[in-house]
Amino acid sequence: MKTLDNSIHGLILDMDGVLYTDSSPIGDLPAIFGRIEDRGMKAVMATNNSTRSVEMHLDRFAKYGVKLEPWQVVTSADAVAELLKNTLPAGSPIFAIGEPGLMETLSQAKFVLLSVEEAEKGKAVVFGIDRKISFEKMVEATLLVRSGVPFYATNPDITFPTPRGQIPGNGAWYSVIESATNVKPIIAGKPYPYIMELALQRLGMNKDEVVVVGDRIETDILGGQTIGCKTALVLSGISTEAQGKAWQPKITYIAKDLTALVSD
Ligand SMILES: [Mg+2]
Predict the structure, then answer these.
(1) Where in the sequence is the domain holding 206, given as residue range(s)?
(2) pLDDT at residue 48, rounded to an integer
(3) Has residue 221 got a pLDDT over 90?
(4) Contacts of 43 (CB under 8 A, 6+ apart)
(5) If you measure from the C-alpha of residue 16 to the centroid of ligand 1, how many angstroms do you get, rounded to a whole number?
(6) What is the pTM for the complete model shown?
(7) Predicted local confidence at residue 130, as pLDDT
């Protein structure tokens, strides 16, 4: 199995299925990050999950014995905040549906978050997964999008993995608004390029020296290929080796797991 060559200086790593599963790390994470550093490489984590803030992710890695810096974690909430900053001035009121990870990120980006009662003042609708979703929130988002306000979503994942199986993900929830308005959202997360470009910016590298690593071909690998990076499929998560070998354009590296990918 081919491993990384010396032209690679940066890694954009997916988290779930690459670094950990629901409750436990995949492999010896301190050793993996030590190995990445020894090889002179830098790593940025990029996740479609918008429920946790960057601080919450850093705490989780600290528990696994890995100390990361805030710049090393990019979420779909960060990517959607960047997209909004390109079109709306600071202080703009927005109606966002989501969990603390998304809400904190949007507040830090200087947007004013509206309650359901004030939603009609919104200059944009942002949709992230919300385990406290309500009929009222769906109504307000629908009315705003129907009135022509721009519609953004953190990530398109139709399902969300839990120990009991796959449950409805953000893509399934916002599809209700799509059906009711006939408007598709602008999506920040993988496989769309915004989150990947943000991760690349954080590395400060050219795309030809960076490998995008993930366990899900249609999000991670496709996202990496969309921005022109090399890609690596690890078999510690969702996609299989057969699916990896059949994928076009060809995936640069296929490895059992991240430990195998970064070893010699
Ligand atoms: Mg994954």
Answers:
(1) 10-48+190-262
(2) 94
(3) yes
(4) 10, 11, 12, 13, 33, 36, 72
(5) 4
(6) 0.92
(7) 96
